[in-house]
């Protein structure tokens, strides 16, 4: 099927391809502008003339040190314009006119340029899915494949409504996961900063006072002073080590799949956070599979898309295992049960969906259930961590204060 084949199509980019900003006039005499990739300004002009545009100005897009002055295109922006296109198509507005209206009305220059580039290629007669594939940074294979399915079936308005719902749900879920990950990180960072400030700047003041006592200090106080002296002597090495380690991990995480997989496996084993990530992965799996299957994509291809969208290596491998079993003729609910990571409720609902012939609807219900559970879990985590921050900071600060005042208490008892 063309949809399945499209997901495996790789975009061929020349090694010297660069981004150019162009201005020109279309066949109607209207001024148009946008961005295109090409080997040279001449190449861009040839592309524009083939699309019915007479170029007046073509120049290489400058690279800003501080990002684009027109704002960057975010995933949330793509979700918004997807809903806008879906609404206009449902209202009977032609696709070209819909994109033109959205482009003119959008506040971000970067989004205007993106939509104008798509519009120019659409006006040249290219299929919409092919136009979107020119911008893989913003429209992934799943998005393009669903649009392709809508074009082939002649129900682009219906498919686009499903894509819009999928993108909105995906962005909402991503926001919840970021929120869940932010709070634990915030607790650790705040605790480290406060403790470091006390050890480097406050404890030395007490040490100077203690030196004048000439008395033996408690073991706890000596330990804290030792840590303080170490921090004062080597703080730059510690800070540099943290920065280098963080940078090295970021580079390795982006370059090596094995590092990403190991990180995913570790994170899902964490208490509280791991449970939220498990529920989020199930929600993504169910939502993606429901959307693709309802769009007419075969189950095997839909499972491949769901594996890529699961957002976790543990579930990606499990879903690919399900795909292999389904290819051999096994029912999906049985294959899911064999992985051992899907809850009984999920496999039972999938079984009911398979038997009733309403698998896409049942998967949508599963996604709704688990998205609500993620939402509740994140709210619960927030409520839990607020007092936890106080406890952690109170313990650290209180411990340091006790360590510093123990010698004073001891002197008072002697007196």
From TrEMBL:
It is found in: Cell inner membrane. Gene3D superfamilies: Type II secretion system (T2SS), domain F. Residues 82-204, 285-407 form the Type II secretion system protein GspF domain. Keywords: Cell inner membrane, Cell membrane, Membrane, Transmembrane, Transmembrane helix, Transport. Pfam families: T2SSF. It comes from the Bacteria. The keyword Manganese does not apply. It is a multi-pass membrane protein. The chain crosses the membrane at residues 182-203, 233-249, 388-408. InterPro entries: GspF/PilC, T2SS_GspF/T4SS_PilC_CS, T2SS_GspF_dom, T2SS_GspF_sf. Belongs to the GSP F family. This is Type II secretion system F family protein.
